[in-house]
């Protein structure tokens, strides 16, 4: 029996897992009892991970390529595939410049993989055209933290759940989307009867069942709600004047802004009672320690950054940051969205949270990489890449471990974009027919447990994922594929011996920065299961961390923030919402999201029969009154129509959703010839102007009963 330690490849909670393989090749998965995140627990997705490892029937096994769009692809050697890709990239760059190529990666990549692809394009190809699907889930939080705290550093951690008196869960359903974290919340509530939970969500979700105060707000009114809560806190005298005075700036402007609307007016806009807002503010005001958690309800919006800022304001005016049980804790959707942030794997970032627009930062990285000059202008973001492909500005795209034809907004536009592309490289583990149809080159990648590297979860905790088995066929680890390609392009600095060498290079770049974790290496991770950053170099080996895996340093406990003034910035954001407007033709608001037992575009969880038993097919949640007006009954087939496309699914009548709002799960893609299950047929390619994160939570739609012709 061989057993390795790893972390779950699904959500950003980052549960520790033990994976074992016996002599007969049977694979078993169990929660790692010594991992501080989950302490042995796993949710339904994690518990069934072994099923995804026993069925290789959909795996990509060999490199393939074709010489023309209408010609069939053929199996080729790695050398042939990478040499042709390098030749095509070189020709495109020579003719159209480096910004004519792009890499679109994934929050499921390991940090080492993110690191090398970021180094390749920014340092050596000379373009910043790298983005990841994490842009779709957490980029609003990144900008929010930088604008308010001066640094994209999540200030709280999971242990704070056990030390808080008041938890505000905003725009999230962790009971289904971050289940193990929610079990910790349930346990904390059971252990501490004084713990109060506030939840804001237009739907009565499974998480709402635990809430003392559920604010079932109208979609898009989060800022109005947060401002009204701030007003109540100010009026009740529940603010920390000393903290505001010495450690923040901008309070006066916020005070003026939040006083413009009465709590009653705000409540009316939010579609809830004024007393509910007052009660929520009282719970925060009375709390010794106040913690907030949020995900897509705030982030996936055209005003996602402002939603983040207005929530962080509640911490800054109450001084609830930098102490146990307190602080804003944004959750990541993907397992390694945080690792991508660390290496600067977005089109506007550089390693270790350096800024692309800072000449000193560019110089530091360039010198370290011994690369060509790093371009100062940001590259294309996720949705911009596909718009640029469609318009012919971008010629070649490399899709790395992602499924854009299910996950991007206005997915038909993305499909059109791939049709227009001159050259498409797909590097993936499995056969995703939607994307592969456009691939000129297919590069088979190693999957979870088939390679070694690290991931960082939502609380800045790095865990080492150890290799258990060999990849099938000729599949290779993603980092190795990128490094081999870089060498075919003639670039130096990509001849790493192993992933550990990439990690060592990466951590040296963090030295002296705010996120410094130059003291972490694979050996230390093996000894301690996982470690949180910051974690500077350990001078004295006796000072190694305790087995909790924490370096013991709480961010912002000294109330010093890395801004120009050293103070946190309170932003008086406007409380308008520029989402698509409903009209008489499209009168309902569509919000999309996850279900409990599926993960993203179902490329792994969709293979597990047990997980399909929970919910077998997509559905539309609609309020009975909205359904009655349209003569829709339970399980009727309905068509959901937006200006961009349609979806046809069964109706689920429920009073758990607000009138005027409908909900569709986001997981399903094309099934055989049926492309009417994809929620993103409907969503619009509109993004927050600062974070470029799309608005998946507010689409104007019409719904009617489907009558077959
Ligand atoms: Fe995996 Fe997330 Fe479930 Fe933990 S909570 S087992 S990380 S899916």
Automatic annotation (TrEMBL):
GO terms for molecular function: 4 iron, 4 sulfur cluster binding; metal ion binding; molybdopterin cofactor binding; nitrate reductase (cytochrome) activity. It catalyses: 2 Fe(II)-[cytochrome] + nitrate + 2 H(+) = 2 Fe(III)-[cytochrome] + nitrite + H2O. Coiled coil: none annotated. The keyword Cell membrane does not apply. Its cofactor is Mo-bis(molybdopterin guanine dinucleotide); [4Fe-4S] cluster; FAD. It is an enzyme of class 1 (oxidoreductase). Its EC number is 1.9.6.1. The keyword Kinase does not apply. Keywords: 4Fe-4S, Electron transport, FAD, Flavoprotein, Iron, Iron-sulfur, Metal-binding, Molybdenum, Nitrate assimilation, Oxidoreductase, Periplasm, Signal, Transport. GO terms for cellular component: membrane. Residues 1-57 form the 4Fe-4S Mo/W bis-MGD-type domain. GO terms for biological process: cellular respiration; nitrate assimilation. Catalytic subunit of the periplasmic nitrate reductase complex NapAB. Receives electrons from NapB and catalyzes the reduction of nitrate to nitrite. Belongs to the prokaryotic molybdopterin-containing oxidoreductase family. NasA/NapA/NarB subfamily. This is nitrate reductase (cytochrome). The chain holds residues 1 to 709 of 1169 of the full protein.
């Amino acid at each position: 029996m061989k057993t390795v330690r790893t972390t779950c490849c699904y959500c950003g909670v980052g549960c520790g897992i033990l994976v074992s393989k016996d002599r007969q090749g049977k694979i078993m998965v169990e929660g790692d009892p010594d991992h501080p995140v989950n302490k042995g627990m796993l949710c339904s997705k994690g518990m069934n991970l072994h099923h995804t490892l026993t069925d290789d029937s959909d795996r990509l096994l060999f490199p393939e390529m074709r010489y023309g769009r209408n010609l069939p692809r053929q199996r080729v050697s790695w050398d042939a595939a990478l040499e042709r890709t390098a030749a095509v990239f070189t020709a495109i760059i020579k003719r159209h410049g480096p910004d004519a190529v792009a890499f679109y990666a994934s929050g499921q990549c390991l940090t080492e993989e993110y690191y090398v692809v970021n180094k390749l394009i920014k340092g050596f190809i000379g373009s910043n055209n790298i983005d990841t699907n994490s842009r779709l889930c957490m980029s609003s939080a990144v900008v929010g933290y930088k604008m308010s705290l001066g640094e994209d550093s999540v200030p709280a951690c999971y242990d704070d759940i056990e030390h808080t008196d008041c938890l505000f869960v905003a725009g999230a359903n962790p009971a289904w989307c971050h289940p193990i974290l929610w079990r910790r919340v349930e346990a904390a509530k059971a252990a501490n009867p004084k713990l109060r939970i506030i939840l804001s969500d237009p739907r009565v979700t499974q998480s709402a069942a635990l809430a003392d105060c559920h604010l079932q707000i109208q979609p898009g009114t989060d800022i109005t709600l947060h401002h009204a809560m701030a007003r109540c806190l100010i009026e009740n005298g529940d603010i920390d004047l000393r903290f505001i005075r010495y450690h923040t700036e901008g309070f006066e402007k916020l005070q003026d802004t939040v006083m413009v609307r009465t709590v009653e007016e705000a409540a009316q806009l939010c579609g809830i009672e004024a007393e509910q807002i007052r009660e929520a503010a009282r719970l925060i005001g009375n709390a010794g320690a106040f913690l907030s958690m949020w995900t897509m309800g705030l982030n996936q919006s055209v005003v996602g950054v402002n939603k983040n800022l207005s929530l962080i304001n509640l911490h800054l005016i109450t001084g609830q940051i930098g102490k146990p049980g307190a602080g804003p804790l944004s959750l990541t959707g993907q397992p390694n969205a945080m690792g991508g942030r660390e290496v600067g794997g977005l089109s506007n970032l550089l390693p270790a949270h350096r800024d692309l627009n800072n000449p000193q930062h560019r110089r530091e990285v360039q010198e370290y990489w011994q690369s060509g000059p790093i371009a100062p202008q940001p590259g294309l973001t996720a949705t911009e890449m596909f718009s640029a492909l469609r318009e012919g500005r971008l010629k070649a795209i490399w899709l790395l471990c992602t499924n854009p034809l299910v996950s991007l907004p206005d997915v038909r536009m993305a499909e059109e974009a791939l049709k227009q592309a001159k050259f498409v490289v797909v590097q993936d583990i499995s056969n995703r027919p939607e994307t592969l149809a456009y691939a000129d080159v297919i590069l088979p990648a190693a999957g979870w447990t088939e390679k070694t590297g690290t991931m960082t979860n939502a609380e800045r905790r790095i865990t080492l994922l150890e290799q258990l088995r060999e990849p099938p066929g000729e599949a290779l680890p993603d980092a190795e594929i990128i490094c081999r390609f870089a060498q075919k392009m003639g670039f130096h600095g990509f001849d790493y011996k192993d992933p550990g060498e990439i990690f060592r290079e990466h951590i040296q770049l963090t030295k002296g920065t705010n996120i410094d974790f130059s003291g972490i290496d694979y050996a230390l991770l093996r000894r301690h299961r996982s470690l949180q950053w910051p974690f500077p170099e350990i001078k004295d080996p006796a000072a190694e961390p305790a087995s909790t895996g924490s370096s013991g340093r709480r961010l912002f406990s000294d109330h010093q923030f890395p801004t120009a003034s050293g103070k946190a910035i309170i932003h008086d954001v406007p409380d308008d919402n520029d989402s698509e407007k409903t009209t008489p033709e499209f009168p309902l608001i569509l919000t999309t999201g996850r279900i409990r037992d599926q993960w993203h575009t179902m490329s792994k969880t969709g293979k597990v029969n047990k997980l399909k038993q929970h919910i077998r097919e997509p559905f539309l949640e609609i309020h009975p009154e909205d359904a009655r007006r349209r003569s829709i009954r339970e399980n009727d087939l309905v068509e959901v129509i937006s200006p961009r496309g349609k979806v046809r699914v069964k109706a689920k009548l429920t009073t758990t959703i607000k009138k005027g709002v409908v909900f569709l799960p986001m997981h399903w893609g094309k099934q055989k010839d049926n492309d009417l299950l994809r929620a993103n047929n409907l969503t619009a390619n509109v993004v927050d102007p600062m974070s470029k994160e799309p608005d998946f939570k507010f689409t104007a739609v019409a719904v009617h009963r489907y009558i077959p012709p």
